[in-house]
Each structure stands twice: as structure tokens, then as C-alpha cells.
Amino acid sequence: MRNLNQRNQIIEYSLKLNSTNLSPLRSGNISLRGIEDGIEGYLITPSGKKYETLKPEDIVFMGLNEEEEKNNSTNKPSSEWRFHRDIYANKKEAQAIVHAHSPHATAVASHGKSIPAFHYMIALAGGDNIKCAEYATFGTEELSKNVIKALDNRSACLMSNHGQVAFGKNLEDAFELAQEIENICHQYTIALKLGQPKILSFEEMKKVLDKAKNYKKG
User: What CATH number did the domain enclosing 185 receive?
Assistant: First the structure.
């Protein structure tokens, strides 16, 4: 089977969505950039299947310039394939994407709130805040446009009344970032219970962002 290793990776990390409680049951989705039959595209989890039942042939290949799957799978791609496609088209550095309905990220996103620099680890998403994409119906072109806007100079964002999305240079990287975003959101919700947290200055965050470039190289 073409891209068998990538398909197995997607299944491995899909199961981790459940086992880490980052996204329960069928919620969320995962993709990897790839090429099949000379067509540039991405492999993505199918719609409506529990992750524990996934087989390599269930994973759907989509062309970057097409709106229909390019393999012989009878499965439909995740309903969120549009923003996966558009992230790959707009972010050349994106090699893998994790979208999750993680509890704390979803709770913050339900308020349409971006997360300010209450903690320096905000910088892991690429900026001095974590933006929240405006709400649009799931699976729509409008939602995809909103996500791309919120990912401007970022590698992760919240999605209003929905969840979060993160990308990276591989699936391990993207999944780890999604976990970091969930943890940051958890900390933020706790901080808000005590009142408005102190926000780090633009100048301090600029220093942190410079340091963050080398954070994962150690």
C-alpha cells in the first residue's frame, strides 16, 4: 500500500488523541503531507470512524488542488479537510496537522478568547498570544479562512466554540504542540479564577520568542 508508514503513523497518533484525552471518540482529526501517484497532497483521517477501528486503508489521500479523495478508499475524508488542505497550501513548513476538541482549549475557545501572554510558553505557538479563529460552521470554507487568518505567524490557534489546531514538522511535533496548547489553556482557566493575570510585556515576549526558536533543539 502506498504511504503505508505514514498511514500507520496517523493511526498511532489518532489513538493517542483518545488515550491522552486530547480528543475523545471520533472527535478531532489528523493529517500528514504526502505524495501519491505524483500528486502533492495529504493523508487524513476518515469521517465518522472511531480511531480504535482504523486500518491503513481507511486513511484518505487528498490532492492539494482537488476537492475529492485521490485513492480508492470508500471512506469520506474528515469533514475538516478544507482547513487541513489550506494550511498545507499556505504554510510550507507544515508537514503534519493535529486538530483536537481538547477540554480546556475548547472551554477557552467557547468564549472566543485569544490567550494573552500570561505565561512565556505562549511563545511555542509562534507569537505573543494564541489567537482564536472566529466561529464558522465546521467543514466550511469560511471556517478554513478564519483558521488561516488566526494562524498568521503562528503554528497553532484556538477555534471559537470548537477546539484547537496545531501543525509541525512531523506528527510528533504537531501532537506535542497540541498538548502544550491544552496545558496552557488549562493554566489560563485556573489563573482567571483568581482574577486577571499579569500579562508579560511586548519587550519581554520578544526576548522569549528569540529564545523559543532554539527551545526544541536542546
Answer: 3.40.225.10
This prediction has a pTM of 0.93
3-state DSSP helix/strand/coil percent for the chain, to nearest 5? 40, 20, 40
Q: How far is CA 71 from the centre of its chain?
A: 24
Beta strand ranges found along the chain (DSSP E): 29-36, 39-44, 60-63, 96-100, 132-133, 156-159, 163-168
Neighbours of 95 (CB within 10 A): 19
Chain segment 108-148, per-residue pLDDT in tens: 999 998 999 999 999 999 999 999 999 999 999 999 999 99
Which residue numbers are catalytic?
A: 80
Domain containing 212 equals 4-217
What's the number of domains the chain is made of?
1
Task: Put residue 39 in one of left, alpha, beta given phi > 0 → left and psi -120 to 50 → alpha.
Answer: beta
